[in-house]
Design goal:
The chain is of the alpha/beta class and about 290 residues long. The protein has ten helices and 15 strands. The protein is globular and about 50 Å long.
Length: about 290
């Protein structure tokens, strides 16, 4: 897909920020940076993309997202973060998602990933600024400034009450209830909740451990389940780690990875289509769509 012009990219960022601030709240249940998903319809859930525009377009075609929304179906697109860095189509992925958000406010929920995290938490590689310079020359500085402002407006988490928490990385160790997620961005950096939402990883071993990434923690099934109970849900869907088969389970945690760039080593990509209604929790394994 051809890259957008500098002005097209800037305009898509501006329209997306306006949609998040002014158009989404009347259509979605939003408190702070926590979205409560509706109890009917279904959600297409997308993991890390990292500039993989081909996988994004395949997911949109395979799920029929735009056609189904325009046809009046109660369908939502929920993306779990990490839209830029590493891949060849970073500007294209960002522009496509932001255009969808601007076109279907209230139907597109973009969560913050660690690659869209707060500026005071550095990470490597962060090659998006370089990719912008190569494509847009002197205009790259202004585009990146607008992008950083957008990152601060992205949602921290989404919840399907009584059932599923959706985040990029994991649930914070010290979480006491949903408000800790809703206002984690305000309490940063005095509390670690935002950093842990974006950076935590699951582990099979019971307990809580330092994360080899150097940021966040490893959370065992016992610690994760205790935190999920305080949030009133029984399962968590997150991204943040590549999976050989596109997805995997660790206890009550499902990881879904939608990027198929060669250097991640996964043979498949995956997304979910999760029913939002019904009295019983959905079998998340049955919601997986491989490509």
């Amino acid at each position: 897909m051809e890259a957008p012009s500098a002005q097209e990219l800037i305009d898509s960022i501006s329209s997306a920020v306006a949609a998040i601030l002014y158009q989404q709240p009347p259509r979605l249940s939003v408190k702070g940076k926590l979205v409560t998903l509706p109890s009917e319809g279904s959600a297409v859930v997308v993991g890390d993309l990292h500039g993989d525009i081909e996988s994004l377009e395949l997911i949109l075609r395979s799920s029929g997202f735009e056609e189904r929304v325009m046809g009046g179906e109660g369908l939502y697109l929920l993306c779990l973060g990490d839209y830029v860095d590493r891949g060849p189509g970073q500007a294209q992925v960002l522009h496509r998602l932001l255009r969808l958000l601007g076109s279907y406010p209230g139907r597109v929920v973009l969560l913050r990933g660690n690659h869209e995290g707060p500026a005071d938490v550095p990470f490597q590689p962060h090659d998006f600024p370089m990719a912008l310079r190569e494509m847009y020359g002197p205009a790259a500085t202004g585009i990146y400034r607008e992008f950083r402002a957008l990152c601060d407006e992205l949602y921290t988490a989404a919840v399907l009450p009584g059932r599923v928490l959706f985040v990029h990385g994991g649930v914070p160790m010290g979480v006491t209830g949903p408000l800790d997620l809703a206002y984690a961005h305000i309490e940063h950096p005095y509390k670690e909740s935002l950093v842990e939402v974006l950076w935590n990883d699951p582990t099979d071993e019971a307990g809580v451990f330092p994360n080899p990434r150097g940021v966040g923690r490893l959370m065992g099934p016992d610690a994760t389940d205790a935190a999920l109970m305080k949030l009133g849900v029984s399962e968590m869907v997150r991204s943040h780690q590549s999976c050989p088969d596109g997805w995997r389970r660790t206890g009550s945690t499902m990881t879904v990875f939608s990027c198929r760039l060669p250097h991640y080593g996964n043979s498949r990509g995956a997304y979910l289509e999760v029913p939002l209604g019904g009295e019983e929790p959905a079998d998340l394994g049955g919601c997986v769509r491989l490509f």
